[in-house]
Every structure is written in C-alpha cells, then in structure tokens.
Batch of 4 targets.
Target 1
Amino acid sequence: MRQPVVRRSGLYGAVAAGGFRRYATYGTATAAGVFTNTAFGFILAYTYIALWDERPGLGGYDQSEALTFMWVSQALLAAGALIGGGFQEEFQERVRTGDIAVDLYRPADLQLWWLAGDLGRAAFQLLGRGVVPLVVGALAFQLALPTAPLRWLLFLVSVFLGLVVSFALRYLLGLAAFWLMDGAGINMMATVVSIFFSGMLLPLTVFPGGFGEFVRVLPWAAMLQVPVDVLLGGGAGGAGAASTAGAMGFQAAWAVVLLGLGRLLQAAATRKVVVQGG
C-alpha cells in the first residue's frame, strides 16, 4: 500500500502541537511525574555523592559534574521515553486492532506523522517534567551547569537529536507489531536495554575497557549520555568544540541510520497489512 506524502510542514507542525496539547491535559499525572523524578533524583544524588567520595574522578567526572549528569538525566527521562510513556504502545495497539489502516490512508507520511506527534509529546515532557527537577537539583546541590548561552543552545540541539534517535528506535518496536501482534515482551526488553545502555543509572564512561567502548557507540548513548556531555562541554575528558561536534555528528548518524531502517521496515510491513482476526 503506497502512501501519498504531503509536502507541507504545516501539517506536521499541527500534529506536533496536537501532541503537546494532548499531554498538557494530564495535569495530575504531570505533577506526580515531577514529584517522582525529583524524589528519585535525591536518592540517586546521595548515591552518587557516596560513590564519588570513594572514587573521585570516576568516569572522568568530578562530583559536581556527576551530580549534574544525574539531574539532567532526570530532566530528560520522560521526554526521551526512556522507561516507557511514548507512542509505541498506542501504535502497536492500532496494528493489533486494524486501526492502523486509517493511518495508512491519511494523506501524510506514516513515519513523519508519528515523529511529529512524538516530538510534541517530548516538548511538553521536557518543560512539564524536566525543568522543575533540574531547578530543584541545582538549588539543593552544587552542579556544574554552564553559564554560556551557546552551550545551552548546543545542548538543546543535542537533545533534539537524541529525541529523534529515541523515536526511531521506538518506531522499530511499533513496526514489529505487524509480525508479533503483541509488543509487550519486546517493549519490556527494550526498556531494560534503555535503562542500562543510555546512561540513565550511571554515565557510560564508568564502564571499563572494551565493554565501555562498545556501549558508548550504541544508539542508546545518543539519547542521554551524549546530550549531557554536550551540556558539560564535550564529554568527560573531551576536547571542547571538537568533541561536541563529534558527539552531535554521532547522534545525527544514528538518527539517519535508524530512520532509514524504519522506512525500510515500514515499506515491508505496509505491502501486506496483517490484521489480527481478519
């Protein structure tokens, strides 16, 4: 089934705005999420303090940089859907029920439609659940937050690239439902992988030797580890601007590869749409 592609950015902008408004309606859930991120942040902060007291300079970060890493990670957690909360479960359910046929008949590209909606969701989560925990962390602990506006601008660009990589990975999970029908198992496995390989629990530079080098080139590193390192000035032991450019190039490369893989898998899936029960 071939889709017509609407070459109007206004359509996808409207979809993104709709995704933002949709999540903005859940005020109670957002407040609960802010509390959870902040409370968990304090638990992790004191764990980091104890760990870095014992191992100063662990992973190439001093204690204030490590605490910054942790609090910024908490700020990005919901936006990047690192432990769930994204679109993939809804997408999989639409495949299971056959409602995906409606999406395929829209005068819009399927991948871009869901990307726009997910970026709208992520924008709200970044503002609604990200800012407060980071501000609280900055007030309660000595963080190594930069003061240069350019560094924050580069950070936001890196966050955007990380969100695209996150979407591209989860889009592959959504497309897998065309063959698996039930995505619960693969979603659970993906969450576990995301927790350990994104830098959510500890910076990936903490992992030693070849294993550490391996996890730092996986796409999950582009979702969290890289944006925080960009904010800190190019990464632990990085070389400033050169390291920042390389890190963002790494993110962009994974975004292109994964989005391209998603388009190939989408083409294979939509050539023969299989609806459970029919």
Note: The two ends are 17 Å apart (CA to CA).
Target 2
Amino acid sequence: MKTVLVDFSHYADLCGFGDIARHYAAELSRRTFTDLHFIVILPRQYRGTLGSQFTYIDREDKRRQLKQLDRHIDLWHATDQLYHLRGGDKDTVQLLTVHDANFLTEKKGVHRWRHIVQLKWRVWRSDHITVISQFVLNDLRSHGLLMGRPVSVIYNGIGEDPDAPAKQPAFVTSEPFFFTIGQIRKKKNFHTLIPMMRHFPRHRLYICGDDHFAYADTLRRLIAQEGSGRVVLTGKISDEEKRWLYNHADAFLFPSRLEGFGLPVLEAMRHRCKVFSSALSSLPEVCNGHASLWDDFEPDHMARTVEQGLETWDRQGEAATAAFVHAMTFSYDTYADQYIALYRRLLNLD
C-alpha cells in the first residue's frame, strides 16, 4: 500500500483554499482504498474528524510530528503554491497544485521578482504540476514558470448545494437587489459596480465578503460619494445567507479582473441566478457561454449589459437550465476521481 500525504493546512480558512480543502477532504473520507493510505495535515482542532482511516498531522506541530512518522511518504500533494512546508525524501513524488499567478499583475518591482523566484523554486522541486484552469496553465507557460514540468488541468469542484438550507440576511430590505461576493480586494474590481448602480434606482447592491483589506475603505468612500444609499458593504456572511441571496437576487455581478477559477459564478448558476461576469482571466473559460460578459467597465456600458441580459432571463427558462447543468458538471466527485487517478499514475499503480 502506498502512502499519500495531502496538505490541508488551509482547511479552516474562509477563502477559496479552505473551501477546496474542506470539500476534497470530505470526499476522500467517503471512500475506501485498498492501495492508498492517506496522511492529512489539518489544523489541530480537526484531528480525527475525517475518520480513523487517516493518519493525522497537526498543522501547528507538523515538523515534529512528521519527524516521528513511522511511514515513508510515497507522494506529497501540496494543494496550493503558498504552502509552508514540503517534506518527504528523494524517493517521494512531489505534486504541486498552482491556483494562479496573480502576483504577476498585483506585485511590482522586487516583490514581483521575489514571488517569481519562489514559484519557480517550488515548481522546480516538483515532479508534476496541476492547475485549476487552462487560463492558469497558459499564464504560467507564457511567463516561463513551468520549468519543463508535466502539467495537468484539474478544475475545482463546486460544493454548493442549491437545496441546502437558506436564511435571509438581516440587512436585506424588501427592494429588488443585485449581489456579489468575494474577498474585498482590489483585484475583485467591485468599485466599478458602484457608479453603475445610478442606472438602477429601484435596486440595492449587496457586496459581501471579508472586508478587512485596505480596498474596503476605498469602497466605503466611494459608496458615501456615489452609492446614494443603494450599495451596502455587508462584511462576511454565512453559507445559509449566501444561498438565500443567490436564490433571490435579480442578478449576480462579478467584475473581477483576476481569477484562477472563479467559484462564485458557478455557485450562482447552480441557483439559476443570472450571472454578469468580467471577460478577463479564467472567467470566460469557466462560464463557457452561460454568462453575460463585461469587456468594458464604463458605468453606462456595464448598465446596458445588465439591462439587456435581464430582459429575457427566466430562472425556469432554457438559458437558466443550461447554466445550471453546466455548473453541476464541476463536482467534487469528479475532482477526487481525477486526483486519485493521478496519484495512482504517478505511483505506477494504474
């Protein structure tokens, strides 16, 4: 039996990395293996929660516990490019998942150079790379960051269940509304939505997500100047509240400039919500024709795109059904199948 270590250090984090870790770990826990034994790195409070078939390493004490491990690690899966530890020995197959190379756009000068060197070093130390979209693959390839390593594209799964419980948030009024969600960071481009809302005097816009970033203050100032009380920065919301917003919003708006994948647009499609998305980065690839795309962030143009897209939208109509079917193809069952097949291939078990 071969031993596979999967680093789920971000398991508790309320971000894309955490969402992927929780759903992938849950999918692995539902399966039985006769040829693979899994070691998982998890935050200490989650030790044992996936079942007795796993060997657990506490994220907070991983160096010491790995030294005491009485098993050879045949394959080490670093599930993101921001890992803090890579272990094993010369016989350990090293698999690295790269979610994006956003630093190429977000960072400047020495900071950009440092991230390039760091990623090149981590790729060079790997035997195989997986990426979460063709866009990420092309981005890495065009900037010479793959170091000749073999690469596989494995799309993220979507864990959102449209039939799960939903709860109306306290901040919602009786007025029609638009909705968006994500970490409140500059790359999300949320500020472009605020002047656009002048064209929708009957609607509110709820911008939801972790707002401890400096960009949130930029949004607050812009909302005070131009929001006319129609735009609300809500902070973090629960999964139940998020589902309610998907179910009741007139549209989901996602003008992000940088996405390695773009999870929220597919979540919205699972709820048959009309999606308006940026035409940048991975989003056209992930939406695959099931969203209206902005290629211009001028407020009048954005508003016309929304108006035209809503004219014929029906949550029970053919377009909504096609978008729903598309979003449902991104499952964690398929995601796990692809990674398990890759583990076996890299370990010469297939």
Note: The CA atoms of residues 288 and 326 lie 8 Å apart.
Target 3
Amino acid sequence: MPNFTTLTISKDASNARVARLVLNRPERFNAINDDMPGEIRAAVEWANADDDVHVIVVEGAGRGFCGGYDLVSTAESHIEHPCQQEKTPWDPMVDYAYMKRNTEHFMSLWHSAKPTIAKVHGAAVAGGSDIALCCDLLVMADDARIGYMPTRVWGCPTTAMWTYRLGPTRAKQLMFTGDVIDGRTAAEWGLANIAVPAAELEAATMKLAERIAGVPRGQLAMHKLVINQVLQTMGLEQSQSLATIMDGITRHNPEGLWFRRHAQEHGFKSAVQWRDSGRPIPEGDEARELIRQAESRAGSGSGGGKDAG
C-alpha cells in the first residue's frame, strides 16, 4: 500500500471493491497541512489504478472528519506564506497558484472515475468541508457538523461546491452567516444523502458503498461523467477560479489583515472566537486603525493584553 504522512488508503478488509481513504492527523483534528491535498490526489490515483476497487470511502481518524486548514501557527506568526503574505503589496497570483493547486487536488475526488463517498463524523468544517463536498456522496452522523465559518472573515471556499450541491438560496444563507449545520439538517436540505445516529454511521456508509461496488466500473464511470458534465456546463471551473481569487483577497483586505493582526497579538483562538460570536467584525477604516495600533504595539515591543478594539 502507498505510504503517506497525512492519510492512509487500503482496501476494506471485508470487501476489496471498497477502498478506505482515512485522513490521519487525529492529534490535529485531521487539519490540512501542506502535504495533505497532494496526498489525497495520489491516494485517489492509486485507487483508480486498481481494478479491484469500485468505490472510495473518505473518512477521518479520531474525533472527526477534518477541522479545516492547520492555521494556528501561521496565523499567529509573521512568517511569510503564499496565503499570508506580510510584504506589501501582496502578490495575488502567488496566493492563487497555491490555493488553486490545493483545489485541484481536492477535486481529484470529484474527477475520480470511481465514485467517492464522504463519511462524516464529528465535523467537516472550513477546508474540511471542501474535501467532503468534492466527494460524490455524503453520509453524515446526525450530530456531525458541516459548514464554512471563515466566510465571516478570512476565507472563501475555493471549491465553490456549496451552490452546486445545495442551491443558491441555502448556499447564500450559509455563506452570509458562516453558520454550521448538523447532519440531520444537511440531509433535510439535500446536502447529505443519508444522516444516521453516530453508532450507525459505519454500517450505513458501507451498505451504500457495497451497493455501488456491485456495479461494473465502466457503468459507474459513464454515469459519473454525464452528471459531472452538467455541473461543468453550468460553470463549475469558472466559479472555482473566481472563488480562489476571492479567497486570497479575504486574507489580504483590511478585514483579513485585522483578523491576522488580532491572531498574532492575542492568539488564533481569540480571533476565531470573535469571528464566530456574531460580534461585528471591524472593517474598512476601523480595521485599518486597529491594524495600525497593533503594528505600533508590536513595533514598540509591548504585548497585547486586551482585545483589539
């Protein structure tokens, strides 16, 4: 079997037609680091090259599916990163190239000739929801959560899958609020195919996977191509390109820079708590003034003991 650092992939012990791709950074809630997107793609390619495999189940080790990008260390530091450029002016194409590459890696789940099923327990949030929604089908525990909280500040889902999977009205609701929904709601809204009590998640997922696995590979590939073509004709690739550009802007506009300065001064947890609380987020000139104050304190060497603003 392939040897990866962020995930594992193998054939299911009881049914070789089912491949199990397990995101495997449980100590970090399977957070996405620089290696994971490319390893997802390599794992999908491995499964597609094996004629025994008919369907791929994607899941997370430990307490949940995936908590999004591993941002604590980068958000709190002043280290230069394609997605967190400290120099001015920032280079949007450097940011775009990095995130578009990740998007293409995640989309290997969607382009895979073999159907993919996301099995979600705990949470699939922020970038973790990108991985889940790039899969063809979604099976969730009733109490699992899915959403993209960084739409409130510092993020835009680059795969743009929410609209295509959920429709514009529901997608707007989640993108405007940054709210998460549970598995029951996801099934009611048509985002998840199945939602079951957590204790039944494995059985429900494997029942679906094994039902699909009985279909010839060619039949599965043909039907997937036809359905995917509908989304491509609707403009999925163009939506993803625009979303990836917007994602970079959210991290480098006044609001995004305020969020980063707050994380650097008070910790990422404090910045996230502000973001998710519903408390108004500083913007425009207010954000610029708070950025100036934070940079002045950093320059003078005085630590921040109070919340900015």
Note: Residues 90 and 252 are 8 Å apart (CA to CA).
Target 4
Amino acid sequence: MKRLKYLFIGTFVLAIGMPAMAQDDNKATIDAITNVIKSKPADLEDQVKAVYKKNKKNEDVLVAMGRAFLENKDTVNAVQYAEYAMKANKEYAPAFMLLGDIAAFKNDGGGAAGYYTQAIYFDPKNPDPYYKYASVYRKIDPAGAVECLEKLRAERPDVAVDAMIGHIYYISNEFSKAAESYAKADRNVLDEHQLTEYAMALYFGQKYNESLEVAKFGLSKMPRDAAFNRLAFFNCTDLKDFANALAYADALFNKSDSAKFSYYDYTYYGNAYNGNKEFPKAIEMYKKALEQEIDNNEKRAGVIKQLSDCYLENEDYDNAITSYQDYLKTLGTPSANDVAELAQIYIQYADTLADSARIDMFKKAEQVYVDMEQKFPDATEYVTFMRARVNSYIDPETKDGLAKPYYEKVVSIIEPRPDKSSTDNARLVECYRYLGYYYLLQMQNDPTAKETSTSYWNKILAIDPENEIAKQALTLTTK
C-alpha cells in the first residue's frame, strides 16, 4: 500500500516537472493535483503546498485547485485558491467564476450574480459567466436572466443563445416561453438534453402534436433514447393514437438504452392499452404501476381510480366497485364528487341486473347518498335529488310513489329562490314531471289529484313553454 502511495506521488511530481509546452504542462499538473485533492491522502496538505509553491503565478492551476476543493465541498480552501489566482492576475475571469460558483453553492444568489458580472466584464466573449449569471438570477428575476443572455447574443452571434434562454425558462417552469425560445433555435444544433426540454415544454403546454414532432426528430438521431421514446409514447396516448402509442411503449420498455421506469410509465401503458380496448393488458399495467414506488397517496389513488375505470369500461362491475372503494380509502378525505361517483357505479351496475338483484344494487347506491348527507351537509339538495332518481328507478311505473317525498323536498328547496339557475330550472322540470305524472295516475281514486297534476304541468310550461310532455299531459287532465 505504501509503495503504491509513493509511486502515485512520484508520478505526480514527475508530471509537474516535465519539460513540455505550457498548456500540456498545466493539464498534467491540474489532472494530478485534482486527483490528489479528491482522494484526500494523509499528506494532502503537503502535496497541495508543493504544487502551490511551484504555481504561485499560474492562475489556471490555482483556479483548478480551487475547483477541486469546491467539488469536495471544502469552500474555505476553494475561496483561498480563487483569491490566490486573483492575486496572480486581478483580471482573471475564471477566478471570479469560481467565486460565483462558491456563492451559488452556499445559496447566495446575489453574491454569485455579482461575481459572474465581474467575470463577464473581464471576458465578455465567454458564454459561461452569462449562462451562470442567468441560472442563478432566474430565481430572482427570470426576465433579467434572459436580458443577460441577450447581451451575450450581441457579443457572440455564433452561440445558441435561444437554447440557453429556453433552458432558463424551462427550469423556471415557464414552459410556454421555454418552447417559444427553443423554437427559435436551430433544431439541428440542439443536444439531447435541450431537445428533451423542448419536447417536454411543449408536452406540459398540451401541444402534443408539436411535442411529438420534436420527439420524433430526436429519435431520428437517437432511436434508442429513452426520453424521446417516452415522450413519443405519452404524446400519442394523449392524442388517442393508441396503436402508435403502444409501438413507442414497446420501444421504451424493450428497445431503449438505460431506461428506468416509474409508476407513471406503467400508468400510461395502461392508458394506451385501455384506449385500444385491450382491457386485461391495461389492468395488468395499472397493477404494475401500483407495485412501483409512489411518493404520495394522492398519486397512488389516481392510479387506483384509473384501474377502477378500466374495470368499469370492461363491465367488470364487482372489481370496479372494489377498486373504487380502495380509491376512496387511499384518498383519505375524498370530496363529495368523489363519493357520488361510487353511487353512479352502483346505478350503472343495477341497470345490468334484474328483479331483486337490481333493486338491491339501487339501494346500495341510495345508501351512498345517505352517507354523503352525513359527511357533506351542503350537498343536501343534490343528495335528495339523486335519492329521488334512484327511487324512481326502483319504482319505474310510479306505482308506489317511492320518489315522491324526495322530489317534493327538492321543490321546497328550489322554488323559494328569487333567482334560479338553469340547473335549478332543469331540476324543477324533472320534479314537476314526476309529481304531475304521479297525481295523473291517482285521478281515478282521488278527486283532488286532477287539480294537483294540472298545476305541476302548468309549472313546467311556465319554465319551458314548448314542453311537449306537459302539453300532452294537460290534455289528459282536462278530459
């Protein structure tokens, strides 16, 4: 071990003492001392001092040493060697850039921007300080960051400034502006990362066709790129081009290099299969999604909801209900709308059944509404209206008038309102139609029923003068 240590030191000393051109000598020295600083040997301080003594006037080596210390999170020595470099050359821009990077590492955005400004002053043709200034300043003022990059455009027309601006907007979550900036750049000179951001910015802006076009361009250069295959897959799914979505999904999962998969990938795979009416495969993918790490219950609940929807579309009502109940539990605090959807599944299921099984399923739906009223008192009107409908489904011929008390209650809630919405009027028409028909059936046994029925049909005509059902019913009550 000791022999290897001294062999390494010997190689290092040889590197800094070899006669060669200055640039090559600097590179050898920088590579060697960087390795020493990163490896932290026992005699680190001695080796660093030896290099410093030989390079007190060599700002390139001094800044490189400072950077090596910064990579080791040793900001004290990083600052020290930046200052040594400035002592050797007070106008040396890389020293100011290093100080800016140190300030950025310490989350001192203002200090970092100040050092980068000085670096720009001493080296106005170098794109790096402009970009670094923009990167830290975008948190404070994205427009100011972009303005800085526009100054670079004036200094260096050859630099892809629009792509830099696109990136600044992208990491600031201003995706529309990011896409606009990337669109101005020459697509052929954008690297993989920039093309990915461009396609993602379009995707987040729901410009799926444009995002797909950029992803396809990326795939023309890098057909095994996971990011581009994923974006093509997602975009085709959202465009409902499910056949191509499944082809890109296969490319992502089976023909991409270094691809890592999340619950989101499997969820989209399920969406694509579901859209293609391949329900068993969709269910398999949703279940795989739930096997992945999901960082919060809301996201997990979202996948369970999609699984339930898939079962429902496949008319597997039992599993749809079980999954939907799991969805509500996973949400923890579901909304009234979330709970109401469970009742709708029961109603949909009941329509496929007959006799007592049908009635039992409708009663389960009604129980959901009963429970809703306990948890959401503000939903009383909606709950009462839906209970009226469910009871009308149980008693489709209105023999027992099961829905009557609920429709009457809805009328008592809505009628006193001085200003009624279109929803209010639609509900009143439904209530009046049921009650008018109920009393129409009672006319033979109840002398007062005729007048009551007539009043409800007239109320409908007051809301909807052209209502044909009401007009026809009135001809019956007047006989």
Note: Confidence is low (pLDDT under 50) at residues 1-22.
